[in-house]
Design brief:
By secondary structure, the protein is α/β, with parallel strands linked by helices. The protein is built from ten helices and ten strands.
C-alpha cells in the first residue's frame, strides 16, 4: 500500500487549534488523535472532508467535564493517507476506529458523530455496547438503497468531475452558514497539499450505498435495524440549514431509536454545525452528559 504522510509543518499555527498531537500505529499506518481531559470518554467523529480541526470549538468545554478523544480517519487530517481510492472502504474506516477504542480502552463512552461519523459511530455502538453508553447524533444517517438527498447526488457528481482538483476547504466554506475566515478555510486544506493526499476524500462519496447491492449496504442496514433496539440515552441534534440532512430526517431518526428524545434543531447552522455553532452544541452536550 502506497501511503502519503502530510508534513507536520502543515499543521503548525492553525487558528484555534493548539492541541498536542497523539498517534497510534495500525498495520504500519499512523493514526492521529487529540486527547485531553479526564472522566468518561467523549469520542468525536468527523466526516467528509474534515478532520479533528472541525471540533476545535467544542473540545475545550467538553474537556472541562470529560476525557475527549478526537481522531482523524486514515486519509484525513494528520493521519496517514493511502493513495489509492480502492484502499478505502466502510469496513476499513470502521475497523480503525474500533481498534482505537480498544487501544485506548474506551468505556462508558459518549460517541458524538456527524456526516460519515454516523455510520462509523453507530456501528461501534451496536457492535460494542460494552464500550458505548450514550450517543450524540449530528447531521448524519445510516441506510442503503437510496441517496441521502438530491443535493448529495449533486455533491457526488461534483467530486467525480473535479477529482484531485477538489479543494476541501472550499467544500466546508460553502456548506456553512457563517462566513469562514480564509485562514480557517486553509486549515481544512492543510492535510491535502498534493493530489495523492486526496484519495480518502475522493473515496468517501463512493462508499455511500445508494444501491442495495453496494458492498457497504448489508452492514449499514444491519446497524440501522439494531438502532431500533438502542435504549441508551441518545441526543439527536441537527441543524436548520443542511441541504443533505433536514430537520425531518432528524425527526425520523429520533423516532427510530428508543433511547432518543425528540429531535432538537440548531438555528443558523449548515451541514458543518460544529463550525457554525460549535460552542452552543458543546454546551448542549455538557447538559446532556449531566442529565444522562
Amino acid at each position: 500500500m502506497d501511503v502519503y504522510r502530510t508534513p507536520d509543518e502543515r499543521f503548525e499555527g492553525l487558528p484555534g487549534y493548539s492541541f498536542t498531537p497523539r498517534y497510534v500505529e495500525q498495520d504500519g499506518l499512523r493514526m492521529h488523535y487529540v486527547e485531553d481531559g479526564a472522566g468518561d470518554p467523549v469520542l468525536l467523529l468527523h466526516g467528509e472532508p474534515t478532520w479533528a480541526y472541525l471540533y476545535r470549538k467544542m473540545i475545550p468545554p467538553l474537556v472541562a467535564v470529560s476525557r475527549v478523544i478526537a481522531p482523524d480517519y486514515f486519509g484525513f487530517g494528520c493521519s496517514d493517507k493511502p493513495t489509492r481510492t480502492r484502499d478505502y472502504s466502510y469496513d476499513f474506516h470502521y475497523r480503525s476506529i474500533e481498534r482505537l477504542a480498544d487501544e485506548l480502552d474506551l468505556r462508558e463512552t459518549t460517541v458524538v458523530m456527524q456526516d460519515w461519523g454516523g455510520p462509523i459511530g453507530l456501528r461501534l455502538a451496536v457492535e460494542h455496547p460494552e464500550r458505548v453508553a450514550r450517543l450524540v447524533i449530528l447531521n448524519t444517517g445510516i441506510g442503503a438503497g437510496r441517496a441521502p438527498s438530491p443535493e448529495w447526488l449533486r455533491f457526488r457528481e461534483f467530486v467525480r468531475r473535479v477529482g484531485t482538483e477538489l479543494v476541501p476547504g472550499q467544500l466546508v466554506r460553502i456548506s456553512c452558514v457563517t462566513e469562514l475566515d480564509e485562514l480557517v478555510v486553509e486549515a481544512y486544506n492543510a492535510p491535502f497539499p498534493v493530489p495523492e493526499s486526496k484519495a480518502g476524500v475522493l473515496a468517501f462519496p463512493e462508499l455511500v450505498p445508494t444501491e442495495v447491492d453496494h458492498p457497504s449496504a448489508p452492514k449499514m442496514l444491519e446497524v440501522r435495524e439494531a438502532l431500533t433496539r438502542w435504549e441508551r440515552p441518545t441526543l439527536v441534534l441537527f441543524s436548520d440549514s443542511d441541504p443533505i440532512f433536514s430537520p425531518a430526517h432528524a425527526e425520523r431518526l429520533a423516532a427510530r431509536i428508543p433511547g432518543a428524545g425528540p429531535a432538537e434543531i440548531v438555528s443558523g447552522a449548515g451541514h458543518f454545525l460544529q463550525e457554525d455553532r460549535g460552542e452552543e452544541i458543546a454546551e448542549r452536550i455538557v447538559r446532556f452528559l449531566a442529565e444522562a
